[in-house]
Amino acid sequence: MAVDRVDLTVDKGEIVGVIGPNGAGKTTLLECLEGLRRPDAGEIRVGGIDPRVDRDRMARIAGVQLQHSAYPPRASVDDVCRLFAGFYPDGAGYPELLEQFGLTGHRKKQVAKLSGGQQQRLSLALALLGRPDVVFLDELTTGLDPAARRVIWEELRRRNNDGLTILLTSHHMEEIEYLCDRVAVLVKGASSRRARPPNWSASTPAAATG
User: Fold this and answer.
1) Which of 44, 67, 114, 142 could form an SS bridge with 138, CB 3.0 to 4.6 Å?
2) Is the full-model pTM beyond 0.70?
3) Domain that residue 177 falls in
């Protein structure tokens, strides 16, 4: 989906949600911000960095949780965590993250044999591994039951209180209301409003949430 005329600012320490129907361009927007997709026009800065130009600095300040992640087919959870840990000076702390997200008992299991929800939790743990300043989360709790979603919400809130900036997409309006300071609505690739009124889910048209 093409993204056009999007004007989005996320202040340090904010949690901002991006919502919109399927095909509105939410994932495309995040991929541009992450430096994974080159925009045809416009300007993008993340912490003052152009994510397409300065990839090394971008990797140091930003964590990314993709909607669909691909890992080596035979790799275990430990294998993947050690691989990612090697990218960061303090990456050796991954066992603590696995414990926080209920994955300690699955460290020797092949990632391909994890459930969809477990893979989502692993992707989030990897996004947080380098102690980033900002994280991009694309449908972060898809496939998780309500209790597991709540655990992740509480952990993200805790890290946000410590200064982590978060930009996320979600179809769960309860998640948006619980986590987000502000919300941007994408409709047909363009941002239509940026606010967070009270009772957001009650006041937002169904077409905006899919």
Assistant:
1) 67
2) yes
3) 15-69+132-208
